[in-house]
Amino acid sequence: MRVLWLRGDLRSYDHAGWSELGIGDAAVFVLDPGLARHASPIRRAWLAGALGEIDDWTDHRLSLLHARHGDELAAIFAAWGATEVLTHQGVAPGIRRRIDATRRSLEARGIALRVVDSAYAVAPGSLTRPEGGAWRVFGAFWRQWRPAVHGLGPFEATAPPSLAVTERHFEPADLRPPDQPLLTPQRTALERLERFVDSRLAHYAADRDRPAVAATSELSPALHIGAIHPRTILAALGDLDRADRFVRELAWREFYAHALWHHPDLVDLELDPTLRQIAWDEGDEADARFRAWCDGRTGFPIVDAGMRELAATGWLHNRVRMIVASLLVKDLHLDWRRGAAWFEATLADADIASNRGNWQWVAGTGLDAAPYFRVFNPTLQGKKFDPDGHYVRRWVPELRACPTSLIHEPWRWVGRENAGYPLPIVDHDRERREALARYDAARASA
Ligand code: FAD
C-alpha cells in the first residue's frame, strides 16, 4: 500500500502524488498536536477549507490524524500495511527535521519515504551556484531560474483515486474557528488566477505598488497552502516574457526558499555577520511601541492602515508590508524577529522562507538586502504610493474627513484632535539618524 502524506500541497489537480496512487492506497493529512495550537485562526480556516475540498473529491476517504511526527506516525503507517510513503519536499528547518525523523522511523520498519514534488517551480536545492550554496543576489538566481521554468507544464488531471478508508481523528470542519468564514482555497485560487490573467496582469507592472488598487493576484495564501502550484500559474500566463514583472515575483518566492534550504539559520540569524549586534530596544516602553504598531496606532497613516488591514483580513499589500516593517526596525528600533513573529501570527500566507527572507531584506541584514542606510520615510511612501489617500481612508476611518493634501501628515490637519487620531509616536528624522548610528555601531563592533 502506498500512502500519500499531504502537507503543504493541499489540492487535487496538477499534483505529482495523486497520479501515483492506485486502488486501496491511502492519502493522509497529519496534525501534530505540538504544532496545531500555533496556527492562527485565519490559517486554520484556509487549512480547513483546503482539506474539505480534497475530502469531498476523495468521497470522504481522506485520512486525518492527530499524531506526532517520527515514531508515532511511522507506527500508524506501518499498522496500515504501508510499503511506501510519498510526500513533497519540506523547506523550513522545523519541517525538514520532522520529515527526517519520520523517514528514519519508517526506514527502520522497512518502509521507504519518497519526495515526489515541491511547492516550487524549481525545487529548492536543485539549482546551485558553481561555488556551492545559495545565491545572495536575486539577479544571479533569476538568470538560472528563468530558463529552468521555460515550458514547464502542469501534471495531467487525475481522476479521484479509490482510497482505502483508514483513520479519522478529526473532520476538516473541526479546524475552522467559528468566527472564520468557510473557505474553498482551490476554487478561490483558480478564480483569482483567471481574474488576474484576464484583467490585472496587463496593468500589474504599473499598479502593483499601489495598495488602493486591486492590481496583484492575491494568490499568496493559496500558494502557501499548496491549493495552487506555481506550475499552474506559469502555464496560465502564456508568454512569460510578457508577464515578466509578475514572473519575477514568483521567482523571489523561490529565491527565498532556495536561500532557506541552504541557510536554515536565516530564520533567526542575520545573514550579514557584521549586523548581528544591533542594539534593539526592549522593556516596557519598547513593548508599548510594539503594541501601537500591532494595533495600527502609530500616527503614521499608511502604517496604521496596513496594520489594521492585516488584523482584519490576514493579508497585506507588499508595498505596505515593506513600509510597516521598515518603521518597526528603523524608527521604533524593535528587533525584526519580533515583527516577523507578529506577521506569522496574523498573515494567512505566513511562510517562513518568504517572511523571514523579506524581513531580513527590510532590516538590511539578509539576501540582496536593501542597503541598511536606506530608510523608508513613511510620509513620503504614503504620498507616493497612495497619492489620493484612498487606501488610508479605507482602513483609518478617523481620517476620512482629512483633506487629501494632508492625509499622510495629519498632524498638520486642524481637525485631527476631534477625529481622535494619534500624533506620530516617534519623530522619523530623529529615529532615522538613531537607526544609522546603531547600525554603524554594530558594524564597528563586528
Ligand atoms: P503578487 O504581487 O500577485 O505576486 C505573486 C506571488 O509572488 C505572490 O503570491 C508571492 O507568492 C510571490 N511574491 C510576490 N512578492 C514577493 C516577495 N517580495 N517575496 C517573496 N515572494 C513574493 N509573502 C508570503 O507569501 N508569505 C509571507 O509570509 C510574506 N511575508 C512578507 C514579509 C515582509 C516584511 C514583506 C516585505 C513581504 C512578505 N511577503 C510574504 C511577500 C509579499 O508581500 C507577498 O507575497 C505578496 O504581497 C502577496 O500578495 P499577492 O499574492 O497579491 O502578490
Automatic annotation (TrEMBL):
Q: Is Cytoplasm found in the keyword set?
A: no
- Please give the Gene Ontology molecular function terms for this protein: deoxyribodipyrimidine photo-lyase activity; DNA binding; FAD binding
Where FAD binds, per the record, is at 204, 216-220, 246, 249-256, 349-351
Indicate the segments forming the Photolyase/cryptochrome alpha/beta domain, all copies. Answer: 1-121
- EC number(s) per entry: 4.1.99.3
Q: Where is this site: Electron transfer via tryptophanyl radical?
A: W280, W336, W359
Cofactors required: FAD; (6R)-5,10-methylene-5,6,7,8-tetrahydrofolate
Going by the UniProt record, its keywords in alphabetical order are: Chromophore, FAD, Flavoprotein, Lyase
Pfam families hit by this protein: DNA_photolyase, FAD_binding_7
SUPFAM superfamilies according to UniProt: Cryptochrome/photolyase FAD-binding domain, Cryptochrome/photolyase, N-terminal domain
Q: Which reaction does it catalyse?
A: cyclobutadipyrimidine (in DNA) = 2 pyrimidine residues (in DNA)
Q: Which residues form the signal peptide?
A: none
- Cofactor annotation comment: Binds 1 FAD per subunit.
Q: Can you tell which superkingdom this protein's organism belongs to?
A: Bacteria
What GO biological process terms does the UniProt entry carry, in alphabetical order?
A: photoreactive repair; response to light stimulus
Q: Which family does it belong to?
A: Belongs to the DNA photolyase family.
Provide the protein name: Deoxyribodipyrimidine photo-lyase
